[in-house]
């Protein structure tokens, strides 16, 4: 069984004024292939930093990441990233965006066309292959981003608030799509979100992080992602266990935010 292993990661940013930020401290976590992990936590607790380290965009100051037994030292197609927005190639149409990875690997159209068409069908954009990026709504653009990521057949998909810029209705549809893709592809997925509901819906495991230094605060195992596959997500949200977990986590985050505010006021006094 292959795994993604985060081993005692710390990240310190030294600032030009001589001070530093401890963005992450001693973060450890192991994910099995096919796990769906959501990550929640107040702004500044190191979520994006952790994802950037997993992507290989940043080297941690301590610790290491291994995937399927080898050490992660830089970006690689085995780890795909989906950003919040704006990461598509504006000058390419939908199909060319999705086929970008395979083309970069040197594949010819006969080799990738079937996969690309299939992925565009899966994300509901089969009729939009020739469209330019600017002709698409925000939700459709994120569908393209998901399909483009999957076209590289990564082992791990990293998502940094991928649905954060969408309106509520589109967001809910996309949450359903993420669950569907997770079940159908068996990929390992790590999804960062600001939304407690989304973290509950899109995490078999949910990590709550705390700031200063950024660290793992709590971890939950949740049934809602499995319950939600192919189902009306509103029905899942109405489940009494969902409501009670939402309250529990919301009040935990509230307490954290209050503590941060308190510390900030003390520092300013
Ligand atoms: N390149 C950087 N240089 C200096 N500080 C950084 C850099 N990137 C992130 N930070 C700091 O590290 C902390 C964690 O940031 P980030 O990972 O973006 O948090 P989150 O995504 O949880 O909001 C913040 O205090 C942020 O200001
Ligand atoms: Mg962030």
Characterize this entry briefly.
The chain has about 270 residues and is α/β, with parallel strands linked by helices.
Attribute tags:
alpha/beta; Rossmann fold; about 270 residues; globular; 6-stranded mixed β-sheet; 4-stranded antiparallel β-sheet; 10 strands; binds magnesium ion; binds adenosine-5'-diphosphate
Report the portion of residues in β strands. 15-25%
The average pLDDT value, as a whole number, equals 93
Task: Kindly provide the radius of gyration, computed on alpha-carbon positions and rounded to a whole number of angstroms.
Answer: 19 Å
Helix/strand structural class = alpha/beta
Looking at the structure, the CATH topology of the largest domain is Rossmann fold
- CATH homologous superfamily of the largest domain? P-loop containing nucleotide triphosphate hydrolases
List the quaternary state of the chains.
single chain
What is the CA-CA span between the terminal residues? 53 Å
Task: Report on this structure.
The structure is a single chain. The protein is α/β, with parallel strands linked by helices and 269 residues long. It folds into 2 domains: 1-78 and 156-252, Rossmann fold, CATH 3.40.50; 88-153, no CATH class. 41% of the residues lie in helices and 24% in strands. The chain has helices spanning 47-55, 94-98, 100-104, 109-122, 138-151, 168-185, 196-201, 224-228, 233-237, 240-268; strands at 3-14, 20-32, 36-40, 62-67, 70-71, 79-82, 156-160, 188-192, 205-210, 215-221. The strands form 2 sheets. A 6-stranded mixed β-sheet has the order 6-7-8-3-9-10, sandwiched between helices. Strands 2-1-4-5 form a 4-stranded antiparallel β-sheet, with helices on one face. Helix 4 (109-122) packs across helix 5 (138-151). The chain is globular, with a radius of gyration of 19 Å. The mean pLDDT is 93. Bound molecules: adenosine-5'-diphosphate (ADP) and magnesium ion (MG).
